[in-house]
Amino acid sequence: MRRIMFTYFTSDPSSRALCSPMLLSTFSHFSLFHMAANMYVLWSFSSSIVSLLGCEQFIAVYLSAGVISSFVSYVAKMVTGRFEPSLGASGAIMTVLAAVCTKMPEAKLAIIFLPMFTFTAGNALKAIIAFDTAGLALGWRLFDHAAHLGGALFGMWYVTYGHELIWKNREPLVKAWHEMRTKNTGKGGGRSN
């Protein structure tokens, strides 16, 4: 675990071998049904999240959410000793759902096949978090509960604090990133573009 954590946070080329699968997993699904369910949820909540964040910020949050939820899933699987594939797509979708439900807790939602039963977005988010927490604690293998929880918590955090801390202050972060990349390129540690 220490080796994985260390290589994840270094600019060592071997860290790319760990980060790339987590980013690419944002677009991976177990089955056609899994993909259809995720795309339906994304389609249902995409206009709300894009109107809240804008296109560029949405893409940044979605890709970050895929990496973060995959990482949470990997950590949970290492702790429990279950070495199964981790896919970040559901975690990234859960980020979108949690962000919208956090910002609009009184919005009315319904299940596609049961439109007569409506509930608030805030209650739906609480139920989803409770379900995934129980699934993680009890070892259910129906879903990747750790990835769902990681994505939901990231979505809630981002719309509550992250937007102010990161997006509104992104210029110093981008400048620091470019300076770090320039230093690495100058030392022969990076690629020139």
From TrEMBL:
Transmembrane segment boundaries: 21-43, 49-75, 111-131
GO CC, alphabetical: mitochondrial inner membrane
UniProt keyword list: Hydrolase, Membrane, Mitochondrion, Mitochondrion inner membrane, Transit peptide, Transmembrane, Transmembrane helix
EC id: 3.4.21.105
UniProt keyword Transit peptide, yes or no: yes
Bilayer topology: Multi-pass membrane protein
Catalytic activity, as annotated: Cleaves type-1 transmembrane domains using a catalytic dyad composed of serine and histidine that are contributed by different transmembrane domains
KW Transmembrane (keyword) present: yes
GO MF annotations in UniProt: serine-type endopeptidase activity
Pfam families per the UniProt record, alphabetical: Rhomboid
InterPro entries, per database record: Peptidase_S54_rhomboid_dom, Rhomboid-like_sf, Rhomboid_protease_S54
Location of the Peptidase S54 rhomboid domain: 22-162
Listed GO biological process terms: signal peptide processing
Compartment(s): Mitochondrion inner membrane
Top-rank taxon, per record: Eukaryota
Family the entry assigns: Belongs to the peptidase S54 family.
Protein name, as recorded: rhomboid protease
